[in-house]
Amino acid sequence: MSVEVGAVTNTPVRVPKMAELVAAQLRRKIVRGELTEGEALPAETALMEEFAVSRPTLREAFRVLESESLISVRRGARGGARVQIPEGTVAARYAGVVLEYRGTTLKDVYDARTVIEAPCAGLLAERRTDEDLERLRAAVTEAEALMDDPSAFIRAHMEFHALVVELAGNETLSVLNGMVRHIIDQANWSHVDLDAGSPENVRANRRGFRAHGALVELVAARRAEAAEELWRVHLQEAEDYLLQSRSMTTVLDLLG
């Protein structure tokens, strides 16, 4: 009886550079909270001794972490490295570049938002607390007061969408939403510049406001399926309205 052994490939295994290993250890301390926001990293000489590396290697590790926005480095006699907390804006900017390069359409991004946000509306209805309801109702009240100011209203409108995802309580969906929200928000602002105050804009704003109010009531009643379906329809209506502009059809048109 013969035993077949898998073929051995000659693909070389990449060995991480020492600077990458140092960056990985410092990154781990940051994400675990061992190094807190605003805290200065130890002096270069201390870190060089701790990791047994040269100054150029340590500074290369710093550049890696700085590119990830995990530290900020000030040069000079009074300089040094300080810790920054990880933020979704870094991922959002990078995602935008990738989507631009791939020629991604705005419709593609809007469809992704629906996939993320609609289930969040259902999760929120299932999990909501009294405090969540208070925040949602306060957001609706604030938006109503801004109805006659297109720029202020669209800001409140976008913040309500972000709030729905935040209160759903799923961190992964929240990060993913932040990546697409960066692009959606830019598209919203561009559309406001084009038709703020027009009859069509006023109708769209009022229709959106009614959907927000209806969602709050479904969340209050814990009607998860109805909340998700309402939000899906609302997002589709918003997509149809925002994609009417033919001057911007891709992420590159918007961000490039």
Automatic annotation (TrEMBL):
It holds the Pfam family GntR. PROSITE patterns: HTH_GNTR. CDD domains: WHTH_GntR. Keywords: DNA-binding, Transcription, Transcription regulation. The keyword Glycoprotein does not apply. GO terms for molecular function: DNA binding. The keyword Cytoplasm does not apply. Residues 16-86 form the HTH gntR-type domain. InterPro entries: GntR_C, TF_FadR/GntR_C, Tscrpt_reg_HTH_GntR, WH-like_DNA-bd_sf, WH_DNA-bd_sf. SMART domains: FCD, HTH_GNTR. This is DNA-binding FadR family transcriptional regulator. It comes from Streptomyces umbrinus.
